[in-house]
């Protein structure tokens, strides 16, 4: 495994994570503004960036296995330990940079997830108001039995 090839791959990972962070931030703004057209474009960009990150990860793991690293020890933490045995070097600094960008992307993704969740709850509440009460406990059917709590009646059969 060449150091130069690995360094180029890690540099590419860092750049891709920067791109992912930009997309996630734009996605957050789009979610807040409810700009669905922009959101659709951003989701496509995000899928492409994630596919590239996954491809780099696959290539890096393959290179490490070919260099004799056990398959179960090809993640970034093991790579950092392996490359950082001689102390702080360009690889450990690069891996630290990648880890901080990964953390930033996790935080942005979690924020977006919360926004989507809250938006979905608000939509469900609005639909609930439009649909009316969903519980019909205590109402009798045409056969004289009571309805279960989760059953609904159409307005036409009320």
UniProtKB/TrEMBL annotation:
The keyword Cell membrane does not apply. The keyword Ligase does not apply. Keywords: Bacterial flagellum biogenesis. Signal peptide: none annotated. One of its GO terms (biological process) is bacterial-type flagellum assembly. This is FlgN family protein. The lineage of its organism: unclassified sequences, metagenomes, ecological metagenomes.
């Amino acid at each position: 495994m060449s150091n130069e090839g690995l360094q180029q791959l890690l540099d590419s990972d860092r750049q891709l994570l920067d791109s992912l962070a930009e997309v996630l931030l734009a996605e957050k703004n789009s979610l807040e503004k409810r700009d669905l057209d922009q959101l659709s474009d951003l989701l496509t960009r995000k899928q492409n960036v994630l596919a590239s990150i996954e491809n780099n990860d696959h290539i890096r793991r393959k290179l490490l296995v070919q260099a004799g690293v056990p398959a179960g020890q090809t993640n970034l933490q093991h790579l950092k330990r392996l490359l950082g045995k001689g102390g702080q070097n360009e690889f450990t600094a690069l891996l630290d940079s990648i880890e901080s960008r990964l953390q930033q992307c996790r935080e942005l993704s979690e924020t977006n997830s919360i926004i989507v969740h809250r938006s979905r709850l608000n939509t469900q509440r609005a639909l609930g108001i439009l649909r009316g009460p969903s519980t019909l406990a205590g109402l009798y059917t045409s056969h004289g039995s009571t309805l279960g709590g989760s059953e609904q009646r159409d307005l036409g059969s009320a």
